[in-house]
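Render this sequence as a predicted structure.
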Amino acid sequence: EVQLQASGGGLVLSGGSLRLSCAASGFDFDDFTIGWFRQAPGKEREGVSCIRERDGSSTYADSVKGRFTVSRDNAKNTVYLQMSSLKPEDTAVYYCRTYPPLDYWGKGTLVTVSS
């Protein structure tokens, strides 16, 4: 059974940091690109970052470039999202996802940034 579990969310003050984790199981983790997405209240879900399976290269949404860093530990089947200089507009539920052909979404973790 494919499982993705995001964790690490919480309440943080503006300017603070959090590290999210996405623990995966049930598939060959090394073979898939993993992405982070978020959905703020009343808004559509948007892509935040992704990290590729082979070379570990990554991409970021313009809104988080320079503030967020994605990484993966294939030995632990885990992807991380280090978030720094957080802003109130980063408040959202954050999800991790395996890209196609698996295309599986995990349950999210709530990040709340207070001003």
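Summary. The chain has a mean pLDDT of 96. Residues 13 and 114 are 5 Å apart (CA to CA).
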